[in-house]
Amino acid sequence: MSRIHCPRCLRPEAHCLCPLIPSLDSRTRVLVLQHPSEVNHALNTARLAALGLTNAELIVGEVFADLPALLNQPGYQARLLFPGEDAQTLQGYGADDQPLLLVVPDGTWRKARKLLHLNPLLATLPRVTLAQGGVSRYRLRKAPGPGALSTVEAIAQALQVLEAPICFEPLLKPFEALIEGQIAAMGEEVFLRNHGPN
């Protein structure tokens, strides 16, 4: 018999994260394009980010037929949050700056690159990236490189930079609870053996 899941956060009902999910306003609009392989991932951080922001949308797929309309949001400049040689480091908004539509591909690095390949319009967007030195709180996996963050961490950090001094830290509360729950389920000894310092 399968466990009952919360229809909102998709977690098992006994581990529902909804009480921890904030409802934060942002000047920036966030559009998360999620690869289908991420939907049933135990740590679906993109969903947590989309649920925690009032000005965010999460769309699942590989090819997005309505991408031109999604990117052409009146009053917003579309930018792709993805590293690259020509990516500009995000800066805070100036007084007269038009807000950004921050497009965030969600998946493994390979799957995220595949989304860009299958949706050439994404590759034409100006790219933005986070400043170097971000440290992930995602203690259950080895980061593929320095500064590699989960989707919710990247979104929270991007909004923190763009909209300072507004605090987007509450966006990470359900993520941290999820990590703690996973560690508790595996037991401290197993966690330290597999994920502790070498």
From TrEMBL:
SMART domains: DTW. The keyword S-adenosyl-L-methionine applies. Keywords: S-adenosyl-L-methionine, Transferase, tRNA processing. InterPro entries: DTW, DTWD2/TAPT. Residues 2-187 form the DTW domain. The keyword Disulfide bond does not apply. Its EC number is 2.5.1.25. Transmembrane segments: none annotated. Belongs to the TDD superfamily. DTWD2 family. PANTHER family: TRNA-URIDINE AMINOCARBOXYPROPYLTRANSFERASE 2. This is tRNA-uridine aminocarboxypropyltransferase. It comes from Pseudomonas gregormendelii. The lineage of its organism: Bacteria, Pseudomonadati, Pseudomonadota, Gammaproteobacteria, Pseudomonadales.
